[in-house]
Every structure is written in C-alpha cells, then in structure tokens.
Amino acid sequence: MIKKQLFINGEWVEAKKHTPLLSPYTGEVIANVPDATMEEVEFAIEAAYQARNTMAEMPIHQRATILEKLANLLENRAEEAAILISKESAKPLKDAKGEIARTVQTYKFSAEEAKRINGETIPMDAAPGGEGRLAYTVNMPLGVIGAITPFNFPMNLVAHKVGPAIAAGNTVVLKPASQTPLSAYFLAELMQEAGLPPGGLNVITGSGSVVGGKLVTDNRVKKISFTGSPEVGIGIRNKANLKPVTLELGSNAAVIIDKDVNIEKIIPRCVTGAFSSQGQVCISLQRIYVHKDCYDTFVEKFVTATKNLKVGDPLNLQTDVSALIHRKEVDRALSWIEEAKQKGAKIAIGGTSEGSILHPTVLLEVEKSAKVSCQEVFAPIVLINKVESVEEAIDLVNDSRYGLQAGIYTENIHTAMYASKKLYVGGVLVNDIPTFRVDHMPYGGVKESGIGREGVKYAMKDMTELKLVIFNNN
Ligand code: NAP
C-alpha cells in the first residue's frame, strides 16, 4: 500500500495522521494520504514564507529553466501521470492523457512568460510639475501564494497556479482536493528533481476547512488562488479580508444552435462537450438551445451518438464515461433528474446508474427552474430545449447565476456578432461549444462563476504587485 508524506521545505515529512484514499470506480483503498494537522500547515506556510526572498531574487532565466525542466520531466513520465489521475479521480484514461499534454503546455507557457514580466516607463513631464523625473514600474512578486485546487483537473489546474506563481518569483503552499492528492505529490517529486529551492513549493493534504481555512486567514499568505465550487469560493472570499483572491468557480454552460448549421458536423463535438470526464468539467456542456427548424434532427442525431459512448473502467482506453467522483454524487444526480421529470422533462436516453457510474443522460423540454438547468449539474447530464429564435436562446443562456463560457453555432455573421455582444459570460465561442480551453488564453467567469482570470500571463499579473520608482533628476 502506498503511504504518502507531506512535502514541506523540499523534504518529505512523515505526517501525524493519515486517511485512506478510495478509488471512485472500484471503491478499493489505493493509498494512505496525510491528513495535515494545524501544526503541519503552520510549518508549510513558514517554509514558504522563509523561501520568499530566495525565489524573488532568483534570476528569471533560472526560474524559467526550472519550469522548462519540469515540463520535460512530466512529458517523459506522461503515461504514469495519466494513470495516476485515472486511478484517483476515475477520469477516463484518454481524457487523463489529454490533461497531461495540456499540463506540459501550461508549464512551458509559464517558463516562456517568466521572461516577459515587463514594466513600463511613465512620461512624468506630461503633467506640470513632473519635469526632470524618470519613472518606471516593476512587477514585484507577492510572496507566498496559497493554491487551493479541485479534483476534476488535478494536474492542469494545479499547473495554472504553480506555474505562474513560480514564473513570477513567488513561493506556493498547495492544498489539492482530498480525492486527488497523488498527482499533487507527483508534481512535488518532479519539482524537486527540476531543482526548485526548498520551500518554493509545499504540498499539504487534509481537510478543506482546516488546511484551506488556515491558508485563507494566515497573514504570511499574500494571495489565494482558488478553483472549485461557488459555495466554497464565496466562503473564502468572505474570510479573506483584504487578501487578494482569484476564484475560478462553476457554471451551467450552454450552446445555441441556429438554423442552417450543419448538424451532422457538430454532433460529435457537442456530445464530447456534454460527457467528457463524466460532465465533471466547469465548462461542461449542460444546456443546448436549438432553433425549432432543426430541433428534431439535432435531438435524433445527438441521442444516436450518445448511445455509442463506451461506459466502464477508467483505465480502459476505449472508455468514454466512467464513475462519478463519489457514490453520493450519483444519488444527487438521479434526484435532480427525478426533479426535472416531475417538472415535465422527458428522458431521451439514460437516467439510470450502475454502481458509481451514471449513464449519459439526455433530457428534453426541461423547465428552466429545474436544478439540471439552473444549477451546476457536474454529471453526465445534458438538456436539449427548443427555441423560437436566437434572441430567445440568448435570454435563456443569460438567465443564470453563472457566466463562464457560452457557444453559438451559426452561419450568419450578423447573428454571431449580435450573440458575442449580448452573451454575458467570460468567453464567447463562435462556431464551437463552450467546453474549449487552451492554456494561455484568458479564462474565467462573471457572476457566480468567479473573479479574475487565469491563463498563464493573466494569472501572473494577479500574482505580482506593481511598484513605481521615480528618479528626481532636478
Ligand atoms: P470544492 O468542493 O469546492 O473543493 C475545491 C477545493 O477547496 C478542494 O481542495 C477542497 O478541499 C477545498 N475546500 C473545501 N472546503 C474548503 C474551505 N472551507 N476552505 C478552503 N478550502 C476548502 O470543489 P470540487 O468538488 O473539488 O470541484 C468541483 C468544482 O470546481 C465545480 O464547481 C467546478 O465547476 C469547479 N471548477 C471550476 C473551474 C474553473 O476554472 N472555473 C475549473 C474546474 C473546476 P477538500 O477536497 O479537502 O474538500
């Protein structure tokens, strides 16, 4: 049995307490994982705090080299890393492989972006009284970054915090989700090999409220970068006081299908958007609004494609849909389907479960107050509703607590321009599903989908502080 240790100040530290980690798919114990005490969290924060000057003063080319090495080490062990993700989270192996390829990209972008932390010169004599002065800005690292991450992309969402933080000269205390600690400790191992100084990255597993709560309230931690559910994110914001926070939260992402689009062509992409990683993706395609002229064709082809999905063991490369993260999530999802049915929805396919797997489910004619429509479903469930017009669909998309990304398929340039202006979300995808992200683009949401943007360059900006320097040459 694998027994993990905490990673603090560049060393593996035996924890006082451990808890068993269960496979979401088989229910078997796959490891024993540290359940950090307050004292151990304290030790990790202090290590990161003591290392802050070493990281801030490290020449940028050295930081970039460490991140480049990390990316290469991960690329060399990609297969092993993907299997680890698959075991701890039940992410189908083909999706896990895709996540590792993206994680490598995220660290490569971080290495490159480290070299572009530019300030600017300010023409002081543009204002009367500013004559004879030279002024410029520098981007100072903040110090210790508290990174709190979710289970659903355990490598790449960690990379979106660790990569930019190190690139900008900060240190990190990372608290990964309790269900996905193994990939975080794997990262620590690679970071050590890549040559990051002790204290640069510290990994602490344990309860969200204990470890996360301490990171949020400790004065030595200068920023919290959180990805997870809106409920926890809002709680963090309320406790953080003046500490800056980035919150990457949930959504009930939608796509609009206008008349005249080539339905055959877009079906595979829509099915992938709805069901990859069992729908446990923050921009998973949850709501599809289809123009009445092509509604029946769309539904028929979507359901046929859904029937072809392979359900089963996450470690089988053929599997498309596997177990939800916890058995109780299956019960929750089934109760939400039942509620939608009570409100008049029809099940086109799915709506049943097998162990911890929920079969891919397509619902039609769903009332907008049903939870599967207005809340984040985070399960392989998608609704397809008929609309009279694109305008009606835009209103439905915007009638949400969330606003991460939205998509529209249309052949009409005016409709595309109109929708991109009217959709109130962090990102609009024209002729694509909302379930699209590459790792250097600005990414984040409005409303309860969050505050701030990630995407390496944008995250780095929020992990530095602007300092102005003025030389008086008079
Ligand atoms: P979660 O339950 O909110 O947990 C996220 C992290 O917060 C975990 O590490 C968790 O630790 C920790 N935590 C829990 N309670 C805490 C507290 N009181 N104080 C500080 N930290 C605390 O989310 P999840 O179920 O892992 O992930 C799913 C959610 O993440 C979905 O809502 C999804 O949409 C969102 N998400 C958003 C994005 C984005 O970029 N916008 C990307 C991916 C996922 P424990 O695991 O120990 O509880």
Automatic annotation (TrEMBL):
One of its GO terms (molecular function) is lactaldehyde dehydrogenase (NAD+) activity. The keyword Oxidoreductase applies. SUPFAM superfamilies: ALDH-like. The keyword Oxidoreductase applies. It holds the Pfam family Aldedh. Signal peptide: none annotated. Residues 12-469 form the Aldehyde dehydrogenase domain. Keywords: Oxidoreductase. It comes from the Bacteria. PANTHER family: ALDEHYDE DEHYDROGENASE (PTHR42991). Belongs to the aldehyde dehydrogenase family. This is Aldehyde dehydrogenase family protein.
